[in-house]
Amino acid sequence: MTTRQQRRVFGEVADAYDEVRPGYPVEIARRVAAYLGHTPARIVESGAGTGKGTAVLRTFAAPLTCVEPDPAMAAVLRRRFAGDDLVEVFLGSFENWTPPPGGVELLASAQAWHWVDPTRRNQLAYDALAPAGALAIFGHHYGFAEGPFLDEMDAIYDEIAPEIADPPDKRLDRARSFHHDEIAESGLFADVETQHLETIVHFDTQRYLTLLSTFSGHRMLPEDKRVPLHNALADLIDRHGGVLEHRITTSLWLARKPRP
Predict the structure, then answer these.
(1) 169 vs 150: CA distance, rounded Å
(2) pLDDT, average across residues 243-259
(3) Residues forming beta bridges with residue 141, ordered by sequence position
(4) DSSP letter string, 27-41
(5) Can you list the alpha helix ranges (DSSP code H) found in 108-179?
(6) Is the pTM of this model over 0.90?
(7) Any domain includes 89
(8) 215 within domain boundaries
């Protein structure tokens, strides 16, 4: 019997992932360029997925290597950038990708850096970068307005699937410091900083359930838990008007490889 790996379940719903996952603001590229002090000449993206972050990185008009381990996700990525001579797709993990001699000026990862081996990722990033090159990690944190709706949603998770419930007191902290401390404490990088952008995105009931189906925690639930959970959440959203407002915090973590 094949054991599913949580980091590899996204390919099961690659098209849905591409359809419903929110993209990233182009402002991310402007902030990365400002941090670097110039436009990067060469970029590698770890865990490119279907190209949500790639679309922002592509605005640099620089050669871009997209590293993606899942064949189904990589297939969507290739379709999206078919005929684009600046975009190269490497099918494999970041751990197995070999940097070019001298490294790259920008290593980026959108919503995927936490899947890289935690015992090696900082060293792998350091080794992949040219001197004074930048590591740019960015990703969304999905939040809700406080109040009765959030309390009701928490109660549903606590009753049906407590193993993936998000402790209320951890939501903001996780959105704001998820990668910063680990990078800073590695001792490999300089000028570590964290920035945030906020946007509001609306989901009707069905689109929200599709979004949930692309989250690894939900995908790993057994069907006898996932179906009741999604049904209960659908009933909750319908009772509140059938549209869910997401306040999305997009966090950007930046770090620089020091010059020798």
Answers:
(1) 13
(2) 93
(3) 249
(4) HHHHHHHHHHTS--S
(5) 121-128, 148-160, 171-177
(6) no
(7) yes
(8) no
Tell me the three state secondary structure of residue 248: strand
User: How many domains are contained in the chain?
Assistant: 1
250/235 Cα distance (integer angstroms): 28
What domain range includes position 39? 6-144+168-198+248-256
- Which CATH number goes with the domain that contains 47? 3.40.50.150
User: CB neighbours of 197 closer than 8 A, spacing ≥ 6?
Assistant: 25, 27, 28, 249, 250, 252
- Tell whether the model's pLDDT for residue 6 goes beyond 60: no
Nearest by Cα to 157 from 100, 233, 70:
233
Residue 208 lies in a domain: no
Whether 136 and 193 have beta carbons less than 8 Å apart is answered as no
pLDDT at 174 over 90: no
Is residue 133 within 8 A of residue 105, CB to CB? The reply is yes
pLDDT tens, residue by residue, 198-216? 999 999 999 999 988 888 8
Which pair of structure tokens corresponds to residue 162? 């407590």
